Amino acid sequence: MTPSARGKLLWRIADLIEAHVDELAELETLDQGKSFKTGRFGEIPASAEQFRYYAGFSTKILGQTIPTSIAYQPAGKQIFAYTTREPVGVVAAITPWNSPMLMAAMKLAPALAAGCTVVLKPAEETSLTAIRLGELMIEAGLPAGVVNIVTGFGEDVGAALTAHPDVDKVAFTGSTEVGKLIVRAAQGNLKKLTLELGGKSPAIILSDADMAIAIPGVSRGIFANSGQVCVAGSRIYAHRSVYDEVVDKLAATAGGMTLGHGLDPKVDLGPLVNRKQADRVAAFIDEGMSDGAEIAVGGRQEGETGAFYVPTVVTSVRPDMRMMREEIFGPVAAVTPFDEVEEALAFANDSPYGLAGSVWTRDLSSAHRVAAAVKAGTIWINCHSYFSPELPKGGHKQSGWGYENGGQGLENYLETKTVCAVI
Ligand code: NAI
Ligand code: MG
Fold this sequence. Notes:
Elements: H1 3-19, H2 21-32, H3 36-55, E1 79-87, E2 90-94, H4 100-114, E3 117-121, H5 128-139, E4 147-149, H6 154-163, E5 169-173, H7 176-185, E6 192-196, E7 202-205, H8 211-223, E8 235-239, H9 240-255, H10 275-290, E9 294-297, E10 301-302, E11 308-309, E12 312-315, H11 322-325, E13 332-338, H12 341-349, E14 353-354, E15 356-360, H13 364-373, E16 378-381, E17 393-394, E18 396-397, E19 400-401, E20 403-404, H14 406-411, E21 414-422
Helix pairs in contact: 1-3, 1-5, 2-3, 3-4, 8-9
1,4-dihydronicotinamide adenine dinucleotide binds next to α6, α7 and α10.
């Protein structure tokens, strides 16, 4: 296809996602559990925006002409050198269950803009929106075979894709554990990899923070989507002068949230994706409590059916506790006091992860100093979990390889070819 035709196709996919926003949001709620409004007003429109953003790139993928200074240039001849950009080839996109449609869109849009073909394997827990998106892509005019959607379990279908010799690149979002398995599986033909892995993101509240902004912002940062968010601000460090206020107000916010069926419009938080995940969250909390952690609010599952875990605020935690080192992926905020900013930074950076973090302050210099000192792929100042297709997103340390979104997100799907000619 011409670049222009690719761009128009991506734009049509975006239009069709928007035309079916209610249906897709409902499917996501039924499949994943999240509140309908999260999909309807957040993740599904954001998925359409991914396609629109990368639609514009299709016609702007450019090589360069490069003046050279090669010493052994033959007398009387010239050198003409240029680069072209080529699609990397066949992409295996493997996505998780926390924000299924958006995670698929974040991979499909740049891959198609670059001219790649894709085999998409959605998470076994949440395949419905990917399948519906496949139908919409056919309706938009996608040529047969360009996107292939294969459902199935990670251990067999996912593993087969990551080891397959005809797959050129794997774009993965999920656990760090599986990310490491994929690195090994990709060895055979040295696939290109982008890995968006786990996180344990800090939120640092300085003494001068505007609490009217910080409390709802930090709360949204951890409790949105019931904490099933890779960048969830699960480790909250509050200056000792505001520590009690942070714990009290965060606990009040958490305690005031309505749990229930995601399709009920009054509901803030739906269930976790499944019982296994709710049990996993419970295991982290139980272990933390027997280790000395204290519950300010929550700390229990709720209901006979479903997989509800009540929004939870934990205190008296220590940096070595498992719940402070591993990704819980549930609605659990742990609050720790600090005296000096350096201490907060030491806490924040004491993690194998480096996905994201936030700082809450009225002081510009402090904000940017903390932003520079926290080792993570994204730092938010007076906000948390703000995303847009223009903003590169990726992990430092064990949170991943490479970046999605922005111009860098497109680079993952392109190779460079240098052509050097004696003329
Ligand atoms: P997972 O990493 O196993 O699943 C993510 C995707 O990888 C799914 O599509 C799955 O089918 C696939 N997969 C699993 N094993 C694979 C393999 N050997 N080869 C290729 N693909 C494979 O995550 P899981 O087990 O669903 O959740 C466990 C924990 O992982 C969660 O509690 C959470 O802490 C973390 N997680 C983090 C995510 C993030 O965005 N940071 C997303 C999902 C899970
Ligand atoms: Mg797994």
